[in-house]
Amino acid sequence: MQALSAAKLLNLWERGATLHPLDRGLLALSMALPEIPPDSLADWPLGRRNRALLKLHCSCFGPRLQAWTSCSGCGEKMEFELDAHALVGDGSDEPADAVVRVNAHSFRLPNSRDLAHVAEESDCQAAVIGLLERCQTDTEVSPAWSEEDVEAIGEAMAMADPAAELQIALCCPACSDGWNANLEIAIFLWAEIEARAKRLLWEVHTLASAYGWTQTEILALSPARRGFYLEMVRA
Prior knowledge:
Helix content is 54%, strand content 14%. The chain has 11 helices and 6 strands. The chain has helices at 6-16, 21-32, 38-41, 46-61, 84-88, 112-118, 124-135, 147-160, 185-211, 215-220, 223-234; strands at residues 64-70, 77-83, 99-102, 105-108, 167-171, 178-182. The strands form 3 sheets. The chain has a two-stranded antiparallel ribbon with strand order 1-2. Strands 3-4 form a two-stranded antiparallel sheet. It has a two-stranded antiparallel sheet with strand order 5-6. Helix 4 runs parallel beside helix 9.
């Protein structure tokens, strides 16, 4: 996993600005893992993708994930912090070949292509059924899936690929209401990338205005040296 330089991070932000969050995550991985064919990243099971995105966060921004949300009960705003290393766990980076079998039907683990296929579906149940039908690997005709079938398949997939859906247990300090929230790591990482890119553009503007340096020259400076020059400009 390569940490992205300042120049690469700016390039990533510019290229991904108009993309869907799914594509932004894959684009980020393709730049951090240049030895892997970009098209193959979309075939990774979601757990492998999520672990890779967490490792990329650690490489570029460190292991601390700082975020906030609102209580689902009273609306109180809550800040919380997570450790990306703990979320990565001991999962292998090797492709998962697990096959889930439920009620005589077989399913592979969902990947980014499957999520993209159902991303525009407004009905949640239809999206879930569309997802499991894409992942079905046996030749049996798909039945009219019952809620029990869908739940059983979802539980089996979650056990086979626990990092596919990153859930956080939260408790409101104001009203003691508790709930589980999903951590969409691709969206979270992109927010960090965007914030860093905008800060880099401000640094380039400031130093170019003060010293006449080019963007390439400024981005080639180490963060510590850029920071020192910025302090002198402000002084």
